[in-house]
Design brief:
Radius of gyration: 46 Å
Helix content: over 70%
Order of helices and strands: HH
Largest sheet: none
Number of helices: 2
Low-confidence stretches: none
Distance between the termini: 143 Å
Length: 124
Amino acid sequence: MSMHKILLTKLELTGLIAHGLEVNKPSQLSDVFRQGVAWAIAENNTELNKLNHKNHMLQNRIDELEAKVARLEARGIEDMQLVIENQSSLILDLHASLRAIKQSSVTMEEHCYTERERIRDMQA
């Protein structure tokens, strides 16, 4: 059975004319050409589907990696905040130690002054 009564696609019509094959008349060569075009389109669609699937899988992987990077960045920020808090705590401890040292120094100075006065009083 000839395919000449089945409507032509624009691609088939262009191809038949370009190859000098019969259009709208029974022709085994035209039928074979049309079947070849249909096969090529189907093959392209199969390859396109494979590529789309691969692209989808790669995009999913990219999304996973971007999410992982975001989690690592957030964790890094949390770690930095922890370091800053620890440093702040150390600075506060250092200030407290310095105040205690200053107070001890003042107390020692007062003690030395008192002892000096006591020794002067004893010598007088």
